[in-house]
Write a structure and sequence with these properties.
This protein is α/β, with parallel strands linked by helices and about 350 residues long. About 45% of the residues lie in helices and about 15% in strands. Helix 1 runs parallel beside helix 12, helix 9 crosses helix 13 and helix 11 runs antiparallel to helix 12.
């Protein structure tokens, strides 16, 4: 048992060092200028005050915002409204597929952004540049901001300061990149593939996998998709990340066991080392803890402020993984969805 724990500590620490090395080789480019006409699609199902505010922000020149909803948006919302009430199990993919089939695109680059994302000119330019350079898909890493409670800090820690930050995931990608569809620019191949995913949960992951399998480039934008770290209970945060774990199990079953092995092993390993009293294990555990803290600081732009959030993020991820072990169906917005291989879903109730 001691040897197993020691080996696990070494592997997890090496995983962090390799991530730090690969992140060190990345060079952020200056934000490009927005030199394209943009069709900005905004699915809008359950509006919040923050989402209405986002959709009411001024638009950069050349940006045509189209809100996709089954109801007329509030008068403050800018742009056009396209009535959309998709029948498929994945409403977001249904909204986008319907819009792509219904709207003309006279030389416009298609960008899709969730209503809770604060879209800026810099974000649009960063998403569009790779697509104009031949990429089939470009996505932005989510960056929760404004955390005010334990759940918000844990979510921000997970998505911005741990190995589950999409910048770190991209640096360590082997095969199809892990992507988040909060904000993404679509090239012709992605536009062609998306309508086939209206009954698939985790359409962003599956879209990345299919495009990569066909030899297309999938890239990560330099800019991030800023979203609110909305006030919520810890239980709601666990449910949200549990759904992500269920999606991972459906789409990338071989990677599913990597969550406790290298993404969220710190707490159980440190506790075991403390229980064992072994100087060797305690030293290895300290090395892992310091390595993960260094990764957190690196991901936050060398800021030590709230560097402890990575530990809350790992705890959230580990609890959600354990929760996902006993759940098969996914509950999303009041509907129970049965999930089969490849992320195909059907509404149960």
């Amino acid at each position: 048992m001691m040897a197993l724990a020691g080996s696990w500590l070494v592997v997890a620490t090496l995983f962090t060092w390799v991530t730090l090395f690969r992140l060190g080789r990345r060079r952020a480019l200056p934000p490009p200028a927005l030199r394209a006409k943009v069709l900005l699609l905004r699915p809008f199902d359950e509006p919040t005050e923050r989402e209405v505010k986002n959709l009411s922000e001024p638009l950069a020149p050349g940006v045509r915002q189209v809100v996709l909803a089954a109801f007329r948006p509030p008068s403050a919302v800018r742009g056009e409204w396209l009535f959309s009430d998709p029948p498929g199990a994945n409403r977001k993919a249904g909204h986008l597929s319907y819009a792509l089939a219904s709207l003309g695109r006279a030389g416009e680059v298609v960008v899709c952004a969730d209503a809770d994302v604060r879209v800026t000119e810099a974000l649009l330019a960063s998403l569009i540049a790779p697509v104009q350079g031949g990429a089939a898909l470009c996505t932005a890493a989510p960056a929760p901001e404004g955390a005010v409670d334990a759940a918000g800090h844990a979510l921000r820690g997970l998505l911005s300061r741990t190995h589950h930050a999409f910048v770190a995931l991209d640096a360590m990608a082997a095969g199809a990149p892990a992507v988040c569809g909060k904000a993404m620019a679509l090239g012709p191949a992605a536009i062609d593939e998306l309508p086939r995913l209206v009954n698939c949960i985790g359409e962003d992951l599956e879209l990345s996998r299919r495009l990569h399998a066909r030899g297309h480039r999938v890239e990560l934008a330099d800019a991030v998709a800023r979203t609110p770290a909305a006030s919520q209970t810890l239980g709601a945060a666990v449910q949200r990340i549990t759904r992500w774990m269920q999606v991972l199990r459906a789409h990338r079953p071989a990677l599913y066991p990597s969550i406790p092995l290298v993404f969220a092993p710190t707490i159980p390993l440190v506790l075991f080392a403390a229980w064992s009293g072994s100087p060797v294990l305690l030293g290895l555990a300290a090395g892992l803890f310091l390595s993960r803290t260094a990764l957190s600081v690196r991901l936050s732009g060398l800021s030590v402020s709230a560097s402890w959030e990575w530990l809350a993020g790992e705890a959230l991820l580990l609890v959600a993984f354990v929760h996902s072990l006993v759940l098969r169906d996914i509950v999303w917005r009041g509907r129970r969805l049965a999930v089969s291989a490849g992320g195909l879903i059907r509404v149960v109730t």
